[in-house]
Amino acid sequence: MMGPKIIVILVLVVLVGGIVFVARSGVFSKLGSLNLKSVFPLGGATTANSTSTSPKPQNSTTTKPNISTSTVATKTTSTVSSVVGHATIKPSDIPAGFTAEDMSPYFHQVRFNSVSTSKVSLAAKFSGPGAIDVTDWLIKANRGSQVVGTAINIYYPVGDNPEGDVYLSSSNVLNMYIGTNSVGPNLRLNKCIGYLKGSFQYNPSLPGGCPAPYSSKSDLSSFTGQCQNYITSLGSCQVPKSNVLLPQNDYACLAFIQNISYRSCFNTHAGDSNFLSNEWRMWVSGKFLDSKHDVVKLLDRNGKLVDLYSY
Question: What is the torsional sign of CA 122, 126, 129, 131?
């Protein structure tokens, strides 16, 4: 049997041999290069001064693509129609002396219909639903200007009729009469508006063409002949005179005549689909246009160009 000393010596020889083998195989160097955090993902091998290895955010500047904004701008201004607000403006449509930044979102959706020293007419030139508020827009000439004011949309026969903003829908026209001595509110025309000729003094006067106060002559058949003749002699939108000589016992006729008015016409026709006209009218006192030649700009509330007119 081997003695204790011999056993101890054999064990030492085996251990030394194992250490030499491991050193020659490079295992220690591989262990030294290991990332202990990858071996212990739950942090069991981290130290107090270790740093975070969380991933970078996706919007990091190191991964953001480099896009040339000048290239995009060049395409927008030279080869592609640019959309400003809800108006599509081609570079070729921009008047000389103006830039794309000078254009209104409503460019050419409201245009000058006509321009003279006595009247400026604006027309809505867009299709589809909706309306454009033109109140507080500026009509600017070389030596003067005029702000677009307010007007009454629906003139009611009773109660107050305050003026409000002018909204031009498709095919609507605003006629501004310049330098007149008219007395009355700015308003939108309607089927019955001619009955107000006696209430306001306008230049030009309000148009006629009111609906007849009766559907057919058979509606008058129960009246006296004298009364029927008087009613049919009335012009369109004409209010009967208060001192007309008619048979005083023809009560139905007298009541009918007293009912011929703006109020009666309004009550009868206000529900018609075509009651409101496409025309608005506005009267301004001062003259601001050159009688010979002028350049007139239509500017929105932000001073952006909507339309340009030269004469």
Answer: negative
Q: How far apart are CA 109 and CA 86, in angstroms?
A: 9
| 8 Å CB contact between 122 and 284 | no
In tens digits, the chain (311 residues) has pLDDT values of 556 555 555 556 556 555 555 455 554 444 444 343 333 333 333 333 333 333 333 333 333 333 232 222 222 222 223 332 367 889 999 999 999 999 999 999 999 999 999 999 999 999 888 999 999 999 999 999 999 999 999 999 999 999 999 999 999 999 999 998 899 999 999 999 999 999 999 999 999 999 999 999 999 999 999 999 999 999 999 999 888 888 888 999 999 999 999 999 999 999 999 999 999 999 999 899 999 999 999 999 999 999 999 99
CA distance 112 to 139: 10
pTM of full prediction above 0.85? no
Domains and CATH numbers, the chain: 72-100 (no CATH), 104-210+273-310 (2.60.40.1260), 214-259 (no CATH)
